């Protein structure tokens, strides 16, 4: 079983629709567990709770982040909203318990699930895949110079990210100010992408605020991913960018393209702009 | 009291955090009540439930649409997820009851609320306001020719929308195929915009699928609005567009700009592409 599948392995909880999951410290980045990995975990729980009609694949998933998730046991409490003909919709809360027994809700999410194989495959787009050099000309975290602002985090051992050198100045302490980070992405242990991996991939690159010269923690308020196709095997290409910063927040967009030049997922998150220029 | 304020007027429900609201048929369009008006109504309920810390204005609101809302009584059941220092987050369900007493959930939503006056006002953007001719050179529903595919709906009496002639071919049965509709927008009774009006404005224009030549009903799966500034009084300008259609759905983006050229709200929805070319 891959590390990613292991992370999404649920046990039945105490009540119908509740699940227990062990959150591994291996997915830690910045101040807590990666938000995309947790979104995928919650989506897996909603998929399981809703899946009776074959609606097991995420079509749209949204989450509001309430407090940092810690490694260890978590409960995902799901609730079915509607089971329809072509999609089913539910919600979920990811909950942990403090040492004193207090219930702490970490994330609240909703999602619609479908059977992508039963939807039309035709697509029309005005968007173009990120213009990246061949993967062997891109740079990985191992290429970062000493003293680089790239964080050293367990998550980076589980992902294989190759950054476009033309948008990697932020990793050398020279952010471009454009708010653009592009990269190839795959899971380090070789698991091929699927719709749940796409939920993670949309949040797997560093926040684009780093390319604006803000290296601090950028907590997510809201994050929505649309999965619009099953990904082909191979490298994913990710375009992560912001077009708008306002009210102390930034709107971060992400496109994920597969190895056959198909746009397979799009996401947007509203995140709080780090207050300090440097971490 | 304006028609919009009247629509958002809540009475206390039977339980703490639950509200009763009368849904007027005046907000009907297509197959039901406008989804943006209902999002604003649910946001008002969440704002009221969460508002103890002055976090009364929507910052991000997301909704999943489950079944068409009918005119008449509805209940909005809210739940507080977190009351924080700079924002508070909750969720809500909009519920109606069938003639046989069966509970029917119409919409499930989440949202984060803040005090926009306490957030930084600086903004940087790569986006530009829609390029519209002066409002008196734009066209209203009253200019639509006989036999126009523009629907005749009560909602259109409550909004004053002036379409850019350059992106209004769809209203004459000549869709451009670009998936772009731009317009000036205000409430017909003169109420000035506020953050709740922005939630409505993001869903107040016809679906851009009409400009793709698909005039049928385009049910929304998921809809998220980010409010990034309080709007100045006067006309709003709306750019409503799609860049991607796949898996039988389309991703619809919306930008709302105020009279001072500030981007005040951005939204995205995933909607099902109408199957028939003509309604």
TrEMBL record, chains A, B:
Pfam families assigned:
4HBT_3 (PF13622), 4HBT_3C (PF20789)
SUPFAM superfamilies according to UniProt? Thioesterase/thiol ester dehydrase-isomerase (SSF54637)
Where does this protein have coiled-coil stretches?
none
The record ties this protein, via InterPro entries, to:
ACOT8-like_C (IPR049450), Acyl-CoA_hotdog (IPR042171), HotDog_dom_sf (IPR029069), Sec_Metab_Biosynth-Assoc (IPR052389), TesB_ACOT8-like_N (IPR049449)
Q: Which domain of life is it from?
A: Bacteria
Q: Which residues form the Acyl-CoA thioesterase-like N-terminal HotDog domain?
A: 24-113
Q: Which residues form the Acyl-CoA thioesterase-like C-terminal domain?
A: 138-272
The protein, known as: Thioesterase family protein
Organism, by scientific name, is Barrientosiimonas endolithica
């Amino acid at each position: 079983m891959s590390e990613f599948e292991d992370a999404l392995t649920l046990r039945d909880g105490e009540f119908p629709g509740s699940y227990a999951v062990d959150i591994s410290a291996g997915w830690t980045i910045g101040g807590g567990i990666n938000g995309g990995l947790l979104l995928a975990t919650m989506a897996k729980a909603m998929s399981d709770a809703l899946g009776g009609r074959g609606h097991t694949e995420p079509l749209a998933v949204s989450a509001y982040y309430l407090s940092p998730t810690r490694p260890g046991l978590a409960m995902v409490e799901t609730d079915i909203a509607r089971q329809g003909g072509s999609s089913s919709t539910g919600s979920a809360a990811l909950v942990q318990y403090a040492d004193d027994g207090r219930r702490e809700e970490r994330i609240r999410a909703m999602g619609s699930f479908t059977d992508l194989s039963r939807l039309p495959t035709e697509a029309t787009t005005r968007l173009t895949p990120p213009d990246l050099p061949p993967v062997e000309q891109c740079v990985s975290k191992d290429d970062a110079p000493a003293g680089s602002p790239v964080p050293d985090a367990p998550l980076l051992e589980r992902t294989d990210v190759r950054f476009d050198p033309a948008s990697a100045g932020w990793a050398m302490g020279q952010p471009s100010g454009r708010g653009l980070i592009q990269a190839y992405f795959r899971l380090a242990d070789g698991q091929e992408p699927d719709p749940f991996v796409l939920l993670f991939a949309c949040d797997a690159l560093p926040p684009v605020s780093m390319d604006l010269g803000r290296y601090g923690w950028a907590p997510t308020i809201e994050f929505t991913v649309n999965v619009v196709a099953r990904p082909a095997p191979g490298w994913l290409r990710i375009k992560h960018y912001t077009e708008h910063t306002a009210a102390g927040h930034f709107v971060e967009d992400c496109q994920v393209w597969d190895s056959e030049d198909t746009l397979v997922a799009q996401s947007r998150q509203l995140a709080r702009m780090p207050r300090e220029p440097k971490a």
